[in-house]
Design brief:
Blueprint: E1 2-6, H1 10-22, E2 26-30, H2 33-42, E3 47-51, E4 53-54, E5 57-58, H3 59-68, E6 75-79, H4 84-93, E7 97-100, H5 105-120, E8 127-129, E9 132-135, E10 140-143, E11 146-148, H6 152-162, H7 171-178, H8 189-200, E12 207-211, E13 215-219
Length: about 220
């Protein structure tokens, strides 16, 4: 999935980018609110990680404006404020969750997973398609009960395709969902990951179909 990180600390931003990339996520970085607005104007994100104190303003004002514009992208606020009243105010403003600085990366990853599950409406239920079963809580995939081990970016690709069965996703859309803007992506990167995922799903009644000149879709047809 593709995230936007709004954080002015270079060291923290690089650490968060590196850690979430290990989970297969693409993370774009904005070090000011103006830069964040530019990113949001040109790309679609699955999650925003938002600092509060930024060089050109207060992240809380940014969050309030984001919600006032009826944008529903999930937001996790990263804050040094630990008072209960501050945390309650963030949630009332529209934050989906928060982490208190300094935080452990394992906690951040857990909160990211929880927010994405809630937004997908999959906090308690398995997702099935054909003979495929996906458990978002444990991030495991089964083919007719047979567990298949997917590596991070293969898993993210599977999640994207499963989010819209029979919907055609173009290569460009898949690149946007799997990679950050700063990553160099070869012309055949998506083809490589699609080929790997097909092998992992071998034997399933569901398959990844290539729609020539258009893109890919998960189908049982």
């Amino acid at each position: 999935m593709r995230f936007l990180l709004v954080e002015d600390s270079v060291d923290l931003a690089r650490s968060v980018q590196t850690r979430l990339a290990l989970d297969g996520h693409g993370v774009d970085w904005a070090d000011t609110l103006a830069s964040a607005a530019d990113h949001l104007a040109t790309a679609t994100y699955d999650l925003i990680l938002l600092d509060i104190m930024l060089p050109d303003g207060d992240g809380r004002d940014f969050l309030a404006a984001h919600r006032a514009a009826r944008r529903d992208t999930p937001v996790i606020v990263m804050t040094a404020r630990s008072a209960v009243s501050d945390r309650v105010a963030l949630l009332d403003t529209g934050a989906d969750d928060y982490v208190t600085k300094p935080f452990d990366f394992a906690e951040l990853e857990a909160r990211v997973r929880a927010v994405l599950r809630r937004r997908a409406g999959a906090a308690q239920t398995l997702q099935t398609y054909g003979d495929l079963t996906f458990d978002p809580l444990s991030a495991t995939v089964n083919v007719a009960g047979d567990p298949r081990e997917l590596r991070n970016r293969e898993l993210r690709l599977f999640e994207v395709l499963l989010s819209g069965p029979d919907r055609i996703f173009s290569k460009g859309q898949l690149v946007d969902r799997l990679f950050s803007a700063s990553e160099e992506v070869s012309d055949n990167a998506i083809e490589v990951y699609v080929a790997r995922l097909r092998k992992k799903l071998d034997g399933s009644t569901a398959r990844i179909e290539t729609v020539r000149g258009v893109g890919y879709r998960l189908t049982t047809a």
